[in-house]
Amino acid sequence: MTRNWIVTGLAIFVLAVLSPFWFNLVTTTQAAPEPELLGPAKEARKCVLDKYDMRANHMSLLDEWRDAVVRNADRIYVAANGHSFNMSLSTGENSCLGCHADKEKFCDACHVYTSVDPYCWECHINPKEIQ
Amino acid sequence: MMKKSRRHFLKVAGIAAIGLGAAPAMNFAAPDTHGPADAVKTKHPDALTARRWGMVIDTGKLNENILKQITDVCHARHNVPDFNHEVDREKFPRTRPVNHKQEIKWIWKEKFHYAFPYKEDEFLNERFKNMYFPVLCNHCKNPSCVRACPTQATFSRADGIVMMDYHRCIGCRFCMAACPYGARSFNYRNPLPFIADLDPDFPFRSKGVVEKCNLCAERLAKGEQPYCAEASEGAIVVGDLEDPESDVRKLLRENYSIRRKQTLGTEPSVYYIV
Question: How many CB atoms lie within 10 A of CB B107?
């Protein structure tokens, strides 16, 4: 008698603990967005870091860039592959958004998918958004 | 089975100690693991540099028109909100009425007795009584705001500019209490509705951070003079205070100049030729 109760309880417990997994199995999951090269980046094809490094570490790179610009007045980043970039999110042609023209596709697509909400654009200006 | 003896233990301990002692040397030889080893961050080739930036304001060359020009261009280009600006009700429908005591300013005009309170003599030159002086952050050599800042959001840069990293500002306003010149303003509200034309070349600020003049560090980095110097028709000169041959030092050598509240010991880098 007690044994049955324990087994039922355990079964419910395991189901509840694994709920994120079976919930994901029964509901349709959205496919991860494919990064897409747009604007000047499509022709230029010169990268700051290689693709996988960038995917994993772009936030630390931006953090380093900010400290370099604000604290040391260094504004040019000469990457390991020899290309140089303007260490800026959105000002000038050689900045992040200067080359990757579309913020919605370049930043937001993945950030929305992964529920990341960085506060960059509370102050920095996407030049496309000014009307 | 190894024989445990005092001699054996001391041998092992000695080798371990050598290993520990050598670790820093080994780390020094190891490549930097943060990012690619040979990526470099450098200055723009045209960047203007100085050992200590300073400003000289020739008050004889100023008038109210020039003062207005200076303030307007500085505030417009740095996205400083103007609380007299008519808010676009369609874009910002729920904007509260403004409190003008919360105004935000980087450079503004002040009467002599406010700008130089210790120099207000009984029989002051008539000219000074009615004249306005441009006042701004003094980029002090010994800045009290930097001491007060608990997060190092405000710091003294190697070239003498007292800079702010708005990302790090937590809005505690200790710097505002510490600054004897009132050069700092706090964003009590989102400034966006009060910026007439957003300049995409400079970020604006968010609610809850302090802001002030940055001596146009973003322009010096590109080899351009600060906006105020450009708009001043020759009244404002910005240069290296540590270089005896610079324009600012030359002006200071040849003219009598005063600084704001210099008895407080903050060593302001903004000089007024009177």
Answer: 23
